[in-house]
Write a structure and sequence with these properties.
Zinc-binding alcohol dehydrogenase family protein; 16 strands; NADP; alpha/beta; ADH-like_N; 6-stranded parallel sheet; oxidoreductase
């Protein structure tokens, strides 16, 4: 092992060009930490928010990246063995300490999840945060059940597509939205039952498909579309607010009786590594390997293409996950 590594550094918020590939010392994992040789990492809206200066509590310079997959390079506590395949996510990665946009990252042991898979690293790199968010939204946020209907608002996002895949495995009827008619086929290919073109007002169309409204709805766009998503949901149905693709977080002058349709329940989900068990991660990867599930990877970049990758992330043109590999 050399003493230095390639890492993507953000000195201050700015455009994609603010992300600079540099050589930094390989981190020295302290007590309770694991050093991971990063093989791939997914791109997330959270990192876009940080680059744009929209994230709170981030200090600069910073190596971004709230997730990564790779192999253990060192484990001081002995919880993991050198060479073991692992995923790491959340817990301050890329925000309060340096994250996964690097060839090595040192993270707290609690953020590390082991797995075994023969899938390629680009596919594996797409999974951790995406699966954690989708699985947590379905199980914790929505308490989704077989036979129910679900509306996914923001269906061609990576989380939206993964949620559709998991919901179909659960036996749900899936409605997904997209603003772009060219993305309809991408949603149909992963098993979506009904694709709704999103013009900002879809409640009527949804209620035409599902009489009375859907049982569950996952809001991934944010507060601009939330009232319409609530109107698309039946009495005693549940809407889970998970994503903010619109970059709008808050509701001004929130008056619950006026804002919430009668009897519709509003929940929220924001998770951490502890919400994705090794069993759930391994089960999903095994299902992918067996052809029973798919990983919606839209495009793969190398780490020296990070500026291009972030520009693509910001464009909103992806239908699925953008992944970066660290291979030279």
């Amino acid at each position: 092992m050399t003493d230095t590594m390639r890492a993507v550094v953000l000195d201050a918020p700015g455009p994609p060009e603010a992300l600079q590939l540099r050589r930094l010392p390989i981190p020295n994992p302290g007590p309770g930490s694991v050093l991971i040789r990063v093989k791939a990492f997914g791109l997330n809206r959270s990192e876009l928010h940080t680059r744009l200066g929209l994230a709170d509590g981030v200090t600069f310079p910073r190596v971004l990246g709230i997730e990564a997959v790779g192999v253990v390079a060192a484990s001081n506590g002995g919880e993991f063995t050198v060479g073991q395949q692992v995923a790491a996510m959340m817990g301050g990665m890329g925000r309060t300490y340096d994250g996964g946009y690097a060839e090595y990252t040192s993270v707290p042991t609690a953020q590390v999840i082991p797995f075994e898979s023969g899938l390629d690293w680009a596919t594996l790199g797409a999974v951790p945060e995406m699966l954690q968010t989708s699985n947590g939204s379905l199980t914790i946020g929505l308490d989704a059940q077989p036979g129910q209907s679900i509306l996914i608002r923001g269906g061609t996002s990576s989380v939206g597509m993964t949620t559709a895949i998991l919901a179909k495995q659960l036996g749900m009827t899936v409605l997904s939205t997209t603003r772009n008619p060219n993305k309809v086929d991408a949603l149909k290919r992963i098993g979506v039952d009904h694709v709704v073109i999103d013009d900002g007002d879809i409640a009527t169309a949804v209620r035409t498909i599902i009489d009375g409204g859907v049982d569950k709805a996952l809001e991934l766009i944010g507060t601009p579309t939330l009232p319409d998503t609530l109107r698309a949901t039946r009495v005693h149905g549940v809407v889970c607010f998970t994503g903010m693709l619109s970059n709008e977080w808050t509701v001004d002058e929130f008056y619950p009786i006026d804002y919430l349709p009668r009897g519709v329940r509003l929940a929220a989900y924001g998770g951490d590594a502890s919400d994705l068990s090794a069993e759930v991660l391994q089960g999903f990867l095994d299902a992918v390997a067996a052809g029973r599930a798919t990983v919606p990877v839209h495009r793969v970049f190398t780490i020296d293409q990070i500026q291009e990758a972030h520009a693509y992330l910001e464009s909103g043109n992806a239908a699925g996950k953008l992944v970066v590999t660290t291979a030279e």
